[in-house]
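[stage:ingest] chain + small molecule (adenosine-5'-triphosphate)
[stage:ingest] validated
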Amino acid sequence: MVALIGPNGGGKTSLLRAIAGAEEASGSVRIAGERLTAVGSRRSRLLGFMSSSREIGWEIPVADAIALGTGPISAERLGELFERFELGPLADRPVTRLSTGERSRVLMARAVAGAPLVLLLDEPLSNLDPYWVLQFLGAMRERAEEGGCVLCALHDLSLLPRFDRAVLVSDGAIQADAAASLIQDHPRFGAIFRVQPDERGGWEVRPPEGRRSSP
Ligand SMILES: Nc1ncnc2c1ncn2[C@@H]1O[C@H](COP(=O)(O)OP(=O)(O)OP(=O)(O)O)[C@@H](O)[C@H]1O
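[stage:predict] done
[stage:export] tokens:
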């Protein structure tokens, strides 16, 4: 489970979209040796992607939204996803009439539907209540324990202990890559985020360079 962290405009979304093939980018992406452009219907087994937008453009039922672009899903798998993300009570409503957090559950179900080897999630936790934050983290951990790689962009740094590794992206480049428990000690962390730990276990704005007292 990899947390993709970095300041606004750092490049997290661009990186995820480039890997997912949703953005023009140089180079090529291979997952388990396979080029994504050449895998056809097996794509959902290799890659799952939840974009930063929670919009679903069509007035379609939840089950159809989960299957959008993923290829056929068995009734058994759909049942598992409905149970995992508690979608039963929402089944008959068009997705356009769901709340943002409810739509997040549909889009997460869609991203994990094929049990992908690589799961790319762009701020999946941002609209969720605490129960669903924990449920989504649980679903990510399950995917990782089943042999998948989860790459999850997030801003809430208090969630870092839930991850194994953290990649810090800023100015369109990877600035640090470390165990999630150690990333805050990286020499570039404070300068890039412009915050520092405060006495209450939270964060405070880091004083500008000249006004910082030396340790
Ligand atoms: N379609 C686009 N065309 C040109 N530049 C873009 C486009 N989308 C994003 N950018 C720029 O690319 C940079 C990286 O943006 P990106 O959305 O990847 O950042 P981010 O780390 O996901 O930010 P945030 O935390 O605010 O979501 C920013 O400077 C942004 O203004």
